[in-house]
Amino acid sequence: LLVSPEVASGAFDAAACIGCVACVAACKNASAMLFVSAKVKHLNILPQGQPERHKRTVAMVEAMQVEGFGNCTNEYECEVVCPKEIAVEHISFLNREYLKATLLDK
Question: What is the model's pTM?
Fold first, then answer.
């Protein structure tokens, strides 16, 4: 399958996350949403990630909740400390993906 330059660039940007969790440490809520959203976006926008897109999204958000990570309150400390400059826009992508996944499963 052919991947457009825009999709490839978006996946590459999200895949740059190295999992250092500096974002979690900087967040007053210990939110892992920037880390999780980067992983979800990286996998969900590529053609190879489509078969498990909704299942993956729900599983990753639920795992974050089970582990007791807080939710994003839009303070953006995560973006500031990220050594790979992962943008907070990925969090809004995660929120949209989670909403779609939970609505489609009902």
Answer: 0.92
